[in-house]
Amino acid sequence: MTTKTPIALTIAGSDSGGGAGIQADLKAMSANGTYGASVITAITAQNTTAVTAVHEVPADVVAAQIDAVLSDLDVDAIKLGMLLSVPIIEVTAERLAAFDGPVVVDPVMIAKSGDALLQDAAVGALIQNILPQASLLTPNLPEAARLLETDEATTPEEMAAQGQRLLAMGPKAVLMKGGHASGGTCTDILVDASGVIGTFEAPRIETKNTHGTGCTYAATIVAVLAQGFELTAAVAAAHHYLQAAIKAADQLHIGHGHGPVHHFHGQWT
Question: pTM here?
């Protein structure tokens, strides 16, 4: 009997510098034992210091990529990253409606360099069309604040409260990521309708090489979900992997700005 290969699909933008986006997603999926397929929504001219150009892939081409993958590959889980525009959000949402596996939404809005990766007009479309289909939403503190049109949470209690407010937008669970908070400990809080179902803490690692952490975190969760693990276990595994990837980031010497995490720290140094 042939054992099924776990397959995950990432729908996101391309990072020419290789540290975030589609490239980070596929690295994280591969490093965690899952085959990664991809749908490219935008092509960015990007390195460790800036995003210098963004080319939007036509919505019909995005739709064709999704159809091509889902009509042939037995996809177990899907990750959504940079969706950029209303037309891309709408065609993606249409295709998700026919998918019955877990969907993890990383609401990519701003690059590490500060450049916009989601058009202002598309925020409402993301909330209306995508969040109700999310098994898990994974915002960092600025993204959560923008979705809720409020100030950033500053304490674990405020993070949990904002997570509950985001649940009202439709996702089944929310992972509030505390990497943008201050203090020596990073705290991530997982909530669902029953309340806080997971708290994940790690010492803050002093490094500038954190490009692609959000993409990597969500992609790893999807990779583990594709293998059949339940949500809390998948988040715990992804949290452990990401912390190790950040800790090993300074072993790499990539670019002159915010370098990538080391996705393959377990394979080579």
Answer: 0.97
